[in-house]
Amino acid sequence: MGGGYVGWMLIVSSAQNPTIKLIRSLADKKHRQEHGLFVAEGSQVLDRARQEGWELVYLLTTGQAAPWGKAALIQVDERVMGQVSAQKNPPEQIGVFRQRWAETVTPTGVWLALEDMRDPGNLGTIIRTADAAGASGVILAGQSCDPWGPDCVRATMGSIFGMPLVRMDQKGFLSLLKDWPGESVGTHLKATETYRRAYGTPSLLVMGSEGKGLSEEAAAACSTLVRIPMKGAAESLNVAIATGLMLFEAQKL
Predict the structure, then answer these.
(1) How far is CA 242 from the centre of its chain?
(2) 20 to 30 A from 106, CA-CA: which of 9, 17, 176, 216?
(3) Does the structure show a pLDDT above 90 at 109?
């Protein structure tokens, strides 16, 4: 299958190698769910993963690489790397990791809840922003898209390794909103209160989907609703921009 060992590193020269085929298959959500794995690209992103103590399963590299736990280190040429990478300009390193979900929500600091978030690019940007703002974690509620897909992972720029993620069905999400020990603050176009206000702790910021916004059920379950005033003619802000405004206002950064 076009492979052999040199020292402690496996040398692979064929995209038909079974491990390479497995890694390529992770571009598909079905296979990510089946194997519980995801792909992250680029040395800087992988450095963040190492700093955060993530378990690496496979490391593809076009050069040399230091050992990383029990990970299989695989050296490939640029042609094979190009066939594995989702980027136009393939990186020198690609890592394959086990997906990691936080099991519970610990009500401390500022948490962010996203209801039915569908766009992976927006989700990745929001995770990166939540990391920058020092949020405690991100809750993906309802029919939110897969955070482990390549578009989302790339948009986080490594922040996916530093931000606890919790997934929750709609019933559990509504229950969390009602039982939250602090403020649960949702954004809503019909709200009368502005988002520029004091936020207590623990706070739960609640954002709706790109197209429909916050559902009426979730809005009714929030303890407070706020709006982001706009002077222009646009009907609404991009959800990633709106979330950034909320996060930094809540943290007073």
Answers:
(1) 17
(2) 216
(3) yes
